Amino acid sequence: MSGAARFLPPLAAALLGAAGVLAFAPFGWFALGWLVPAGLFALLRRAGSGRGGAGLGFAFGCGWFGVGTSWVYVSLSVFGGLPPVLAGIATALFCAVLALFPALAGYAFARWRRGGFVADALFFAALWTLGEWLRSWLFTGFPWLVLGYSQAPPSPLAGYAPIVGVYGLSLLAALLGAAIAEVLRRWFVVPCADARTRLFCPALPLLSIGAVLAGGDLLGDLRWTAPVGAPVKVALLQGNVPQDLKWRPEKLNESLVIYDRLLREHPATLSVLPETAIPAFLGELPPPYLERLLEHALAQQGDLLFGVPVGDGERYANAAASIGVSPTQLYSKSHLVPFGEFVPPGFQWFLDLMRIPMSNFTPGPDRQAPLAIAGQQVAVNICYEDVFGSEIIRALPQATLLVNLSNTAWFGDSLAQPQHLQIAQLRALETGRPMLRATNTGMTAIVGADGRVQAALPPFTRDALVAEVSGYAGTTPFVRWGNVPAVAAALLLLLAGGRRRPE
Question: Which of 168, 299, 304, 397 shows its CA 20 to 30 Å from the CA of 63?
Answer without folding.
Answer: 168
